[in-house]
UniProtKB/TrEMBL annotation:
<feature type="signal peptide">
    <location>
        <begin position="1"/>
        <end position="20"/>
    </location>
</feature>
<dbReference type="InterPro" id="IPR041437">
    <property type="entry name" value="GH115_C"/>
</dbReference>
<keyword id="KW-0732">Signal</keyword>
<dbReference type="InterPro" id="IPR042301">
    <property type="entry name" value="GH115_sf"/>
</dbReference>
<dbReference type="Pfam" id="PF15979">
    <property type="entry name" value="Glyco_hydro_115"/>
</dbReference>
<feature type="domain" description="Gylcosyl hydrolase 115 C-terminal">
    <location>
        <begin position="811"/>
        <end position="983"/>
    </location>
</feature>
<dbReference type="InterPro" id="IPR029018">
    <property type="entry name" value="Hex-like_dom2"/>
</dbReference>
<keyword id="KW-0378">Hydrolase</keyword>
<protein>
    <submittedName>
        <fullName>Glycosyl hydrolase 115 family protein</fullName>
    </submittedName>
</protein>
<dbReference type="Pfam" id="PF17829">
    <property type="entry name" value="GH115_C"/>
</dbReference>
<dbReference type="GO" id="GO:0016787">
    <property type="term" value="F:hydrolase activity"/>
</dbReference>
<dbReference type="InterPro" id="IPR031924">
    <property type="entry name" value="GH115"/>
</dbReference>
Amino acid sequence: MKIFKVFIPLLLFQIAFLNAQNALDFSIVKATESCSIVIDKKDAKVVEIAAKMLASDIKNTTGKTIKVLNELDDNIILAGTIDNNKLIENLIKSNRIDVSIIKNTWERFSIQVVKNPFKGVNQALVIVGSDRRGTAYGILEISRMIGVSPWEWWADVTPEKRDEIILSVENEVSKEPSVKYRGIFLNDEDWGLQRWAALNFEPEIGDIGPKTYSKVFELLLRLRANTIWPAMHRSTKPFYSYPENKQKADDYAIVIGTSHAEPMLSNINTEWNHETMGEYRYDTNSEIIKGLFTKRVKEAAKFENIYTTGMRGEHDSPMIVGEDDTDQQVQLLENIISDQRAILKKETKKRPNTIPQAFVPYKEVLTYYQKGLQLPEDITLVWTDDNYGYMRQFSNTEEQRRSGGAGVYYHTSYWGRPHDYLWLNSTNPVLMWEEMSKAYEFQSRNLWILNCGDIKPHEYNIELFLDMAWNMDAFDKSRSIRTHLKSWSAREFGSENATEITNLMFENNRLAYMRRPEFMAWSQVEPVTKGGETELTQYHYGDEVTSRINAYEHVVETTERLYNTISESRKDAFYQLVYYPVIGASKLNQKWLYHYKNKFSAQQGKASAHFYGEQSANAYNRILKETNYYNKTLAQGKWNHIMTMQPRFLPVFSKPVYSVVDSKEKPALGLALEGYEMEVNHDIVNSYADVLPVFNSYTDNHYFIDVFLKGKGNVEWKAIPKNDWIKISETKGVLTNESGKQQKRLWVSIDWDKVPKGENQKEAPLGHDFQLIPPSYKVNSAIDFVSGDHTVTIGVSVYNPKFEALEDFSGFVEDKGFVSINAENFSRKVNGLEASWELFEGLGYTGKVITALPRSVNSETDLKLIQQNSPLLEYDFYAFNFGEVDVKVQAVPTHANYEGRGVRCAVAINDAEPVIVDFQTFGRSDAWKQNVLKNASVQSVKQIVNKAGKHILKIWMVDSGVMIDQILIDLGGWKKSYAFPKETIKK
């Protein structure tokens, strides 16, 4: 028998409580009895809906039917809203419960056990809400306590079966939500949600209608959200074209708003008829436009709404005006807002400053606002990200005093340039946390909306976003996201799998942060371009393409293994929440990565090009297979048509073409070395491509050699090191035309205990070229590759000096003409007068970034004051060369917090005067496009390394909140690569 006894504070998922008192047990279901849920029929409809949802959850958990009543029973859950439930009012008047702390507050609730509350009632679990949503959230909190996931229906998280449910309940009172209005925007629904609703879930109307919205609203209630911006593409009829939609929203207590392109709840995309209404231009056609606004306000006035004010053009485009004059555009927009408020006043019979309104300074509208647009202060300023997860700006100190406050419109799905990401959820949760915590710090607390596309597969990020909006206090550190994800994983899939699932998703997010899966074709949109050349190097720094292939292969293996350990009742849920998104990201990456390997191998004449082409095709076919399973088989076809593997049919989703090497030559051994684009040419004596990069004892490098088949047939090969300190991963083998056996990658490393030491000196001589190392420090040897009667010699050079200055040195050393540093591995940090450097976990190329906090600290640009007062990072490094160097700093490509602030730090080597580095981009510049495609902003400054030996790289805060990821000090040896080489830290 499974008995479920829970002490509330231990299982509540991201909820804050006040005034905890001694716990009392309450039995929801026991072997011989169960409770009833009692509500008042005069209470809000959402209270009845929530009560029935809880009753259903209890039945799905225990098999026991729970009644929802309007009269007393002997063991009850009593739920109601202050002033709307007679039984609760009796308890208040008799001082059996005290609700003074939540009365007249926003969406709060209390939960407590009351013994013998009424005659004939043994006990009651009393849930009181400050308003209708507060009551609903309180009721559904019981569902969370008994282990029911908010994704019970939307991701088939089947409740775990229990025989009994006993709650150990304290007298608890929830805090007010951190954000007043919290919700989602259904957008770009053409390829998923709309098709699924029209063809599967709601075929009777062939569209997203009241039946679909009821399920969406139920999800929002479970996630403690209260707002929706409905779907608005042409594929979907306007929300208000189905009268039942708005009534359903009110039944579920969901507030209706609309996007930046839909003023006054109107859907311009589908409601504006050019033939009957003329041109959508306010300067020439204002009366018709005002007529549309008036019609909408009349039909929506009695419901809860947030009216979007202002105006943009059709199809998410700029507003059309007579002249391209910013001042005229600003004036026109001010007139539009004034007219809109007059309509609101007339049709609602309320003062405009009492009606929730939003103004979204999105794209060109932000420019108008920055140019002086005067906005009534009661309208909420809704700041937006740049469509790729980086907030454009926030309210400054003056704007934070506006009575309407501020909000956030944020994307985890986007259609537009430089490239869409409509298929998978590829926004890093820690980035979203960082930007939302910044929004919260700058008082954007009135409205948070997440553009989550089709809902699926954005489940986790939706819940995280709304949990933060509900209780931001629970997310005070970056590691809070790992804690949240682990709790989420444990709730959905059991504590035994939680840590591994969390690690898996963090790695998947890290790889997607380096480049989103949808960006892997190196193509762009608006206009759509074909796949381009990858920036990932295949012959420097261990081969970035292969390294990424291997990283994703590990992710795939882990996901498949975990899937086999998940209980049968949760396998469908795991597939939706973890398996498909991770496998999809992995295989879309591998499809393109193997394509690049295929093309590069064909250029080198490798027979293995065919194998890479096959692997690319296999990855494409795996995506096809998994998508078909999602739609056709998963949950007995419940989700048929919800998942499309190629939204907008962009080139990145297509099956790549492949290069073929059709050689009729006799079989021969080919060699290709790390560091060279071409193969070793056997016919040229002293070919420059026949020497491996120098091995450095201070960084303990290893390099690859590819042995590959040329022509058709079999080739035997041997690798014979000329010294015992040369280690090779394999020393012999056979290459054949069999798929996967045409090539072998060997790894060469050094046994440093056996290499002769160089001369003992205090430190390196003054500046020697690393590739022309003095003989006293360099040991040369070779590896002979023998195939039949043919021998190719590959040079091996090791750098193995003995410098006294490096014996106790802890820091970074030059290797192959550069020093590579992960920013979190500083040697020292010095706090400033008002700020300090802090670590954010789960973000950046390395999974960690370093940032200066708090963000409210003023910027400092005076170089003397920077050195005196700003927080400082120091990195010890040792150079073997000297002269002018490039210091390249890679930062997370955020924007300035508001006008007058920047995205800057200051850099110097040793005691040089600091140089300010600026990462800010503006508009949709080419620099911004590359930054968001790569999730990195790299800026370079010149510095002087005045001698070989020890040095200190210094980085100061100029603007707080700048997140530094990696650093490269290029002394002339760095070869172009997508990411900086692995850090050259002294071993």
